[in-house]
Amino acid sequence: ELKDWNGNTKQVINVSQSLKGRAQFCHYQDIINILEGFPARVYGTGNEDLGGLNGGDLSYHLLKEKMRDSRVAVYGGTWPAPYTLSLMEYMMTGIPVVAIGKHLAENIPQVKTFEFYEVHEIIQNGVNGFVSDSIAELRKYIEMLLSDYELAKKIGTAGRQTAPKAWAHWNLLLPAWP
């Protein structure tokens, strides 16, 4: 059901609930800095405060359509999940992923943190997605993917091949989740 990425729309997407309202826990400022100036939308409930970035709360059918049609997905994770369903849905669909790195993910000043973020262990930079702790570098990856369809297709296809391993690992974590 999550398949058939085509990337025909030169748009960058992010799927987050209440991105601004849960700011520090889903890396609001980093996501905004990454998306700034790109044709971008944030989909999910509670994003009315994002102005023009708000893509709305879509039905599951329409969300799958947006993931298939959009060229790039930006992933910032949520604290304290090692990674979330959004990442796996992106990868299963085949949309290339640009994700924040471990340092950015675990840099939550108001919270005593522990090592939790695993995206850098799933994404091999430049192979099945892109991951970095540099906002400028993440923006450069987005520019590359928006301008080079074949690169986007190659990265997305490799991500799709990686997705079952991430899904299996995530399901193993669920019974132990507090």
What's the arrangement of secondary structure elements?
Elements: E1 9-15, H1 28-35, E2 40-43, E3 54-56, H2 60-69, E4 70-75, H3 85-93, E5 97-100, H4 102-106, H5 119-122, E6 130-132, H6 135-147, H7 149-173
Parallel strand pairs: 1-2, 1-4, 2-3, 4-5, 5-6
Observed structural traits:
6 strands, disordered C terminus, globular, alpha/beta, 178 residues, six-stranded parallel sheet
Describe the structure.
By secondary structure, the chain is α/β, with parallel strands linked by helices. Helices cover 42% and strands 15% of the residues. The chain has a 6-stranded parallel β-sheet with strand order 3-2-1-4-5-6, sandwiched between helices. β4, α3 and β5 form a beta-alpha-beta unit. The chain is globular, with a radius of gyration of 15 Å.
